[in-house]
Amino acid sequence: MSTKRQVLGRFGELTVAKHCQCPKCKRSQTLKRLPNNFKCADLICNFCGYLAQVKATSVRSTDTVPRSVLGAAWGPQRDRMAAAIYFPLFLVLVAGKQYSIFYLSADLQAPRMFKPRKPLSLTARRAGWRGFIYDLTSVQQSFVRLK
Fold first, then answer.
1. Beta strands 43-45; 51-58: pairing state
2. Cα angle 113, 116, 118; round to 5
3. What's the pLDDT score for residue 1?
4. Could you tell me what percentage of the chain is helix, strand and coil, using 3-state DSSP and rounding each to the nearest 5?
5. From CA 140, how far away is CA 48, in angstroms rounded?
6. Domains in the chain and their CATH numbers?
7. Alpha carbon of 30 to those of 4, 8, 20, 43, 82: distances in Å?
8. pLDDT digit string (tens) for 34-76?
9. Does residue 134 contact residue 68 with C-beta atoms inside 8 Å?
10. Chain centroid offset of residue 70 CA
11. What is the strand order of the sheet 89-95 is part of?
12. Roughly how many angstroms between the first and final C-alpha of the chain, as a whole number?
């Protein structure tokens, strides 16, 4: 059974795939979901191979990009940043039955946006796992609203 966060994440991915064109080739209906747990990317364009990350979050207002959003695993993100590889970010904001989609290109991202979280406790199911937070304060004005 899926958790609320997993359901929200899947909704975000499906919503972007359905309503957004590929930012690279500009084709519609070519963004497809990658398998669960694919590291650092959620969608691929099945025409040009463009990769993107999708984050969905519950908010009070779908008009304003939040200051921060939970990311995923810190290790793969840290390794990609060390290699200067960033994936563009689609941000799906959900408030009840309303939602909006914002986009941030990879070239506007910087290491200061990615803040590692504390590792999970030794008693946690995934003890030692470490996530990160997207600190969006420096790029809030750089997001483009798509829907």
1. antiparallel
2. 150
3. 79
4. 25, 30, 45
5. 28
6. 4-145 (3.40.210.30)
7. 27, 21, 9, 10, 30
8. 998 888 899 999 999 999 999 999 999 999 999 999 998 999 9
9. yes
10. 9
11. 31-33, 43-45, 51-58, 89-95, 98-104, 144-145
12. 30
